[in-house]
Amino acid sequence: LGLLARRRILSAAWLRRGLPYLLKVAGPACIAALVWHSGYFVLFVLVSTVPFNRVASLAGLTAGLRIESILFLPGMAFHATAAVLVGNCLGAGRREEAMRVSWTLIKSAVAVMSLAGLAMWPFRPERAAFLSEDALTPSYIVSYLAWNLASTPFSIASTVLGGVMVGAGATRYNLLTFGSTFWGLRIPLGWWLGHVLWQDASGVFCAMLVSQIVQSLAMCRVLQSRRWLNFAMRSHRRGES
Fold first, then answer.
1. CA separation (Å) from 222 to 40, 67, 92, 191, 192?
2. Cβ(3)–Cβ(140) under 8 Å?
3. What are the pLDDT digits (tens) for 68-108?
């Protein structure tokens, strides 16, 4: 502490106002991350317990996620950009600019990532064959990629919208929307399609697409409601509304 200037140490006045706000933002964000990752754990269980071809199904999911993670690296950059720009706008009290920035980023991200998904689509079998020489696994990699590349516009829209809510401090909307669509829709629908109706991992992959569509539409509804604009901490009281 002796190496820090006194002016760089947070004051008691800032802590009284800033710390409760920080906890209000960080709390739902932490819970949302826990809900999301625990949901993926259950999703792995669903895929690994389908009636047929369990090992190949699980291997296909794992390999498909690996390919998808490379595709969505730019998506996380859009997420971080949205958080920074929207937070800056709202901190300065520029609510309308925050809305414009949000929609611009969403449209740009959807356009860029959809083109990337289309470019990858014809090469699904080649990528699957490169990752596995097993007789069955490549077919499940292709199936996973088909369903999830089809969901690219919705997935990236949700990703950017999540960043918007982080920048606005409205992380409770991420928790409520992502949590409810994952646990309330993706997992039950994945179980029904994958274990009852189709009895195949493709049913779980289909449920991922459906939940992404619903999730993105719900987040767009939240954005349009404008209630999230009221969660930001302003830099001065005049900017508050």
1. 24, 30, 22, 28, 29
2. no
3. 888 889 999 999 999 999 999 999 999 999 999 999 999 99
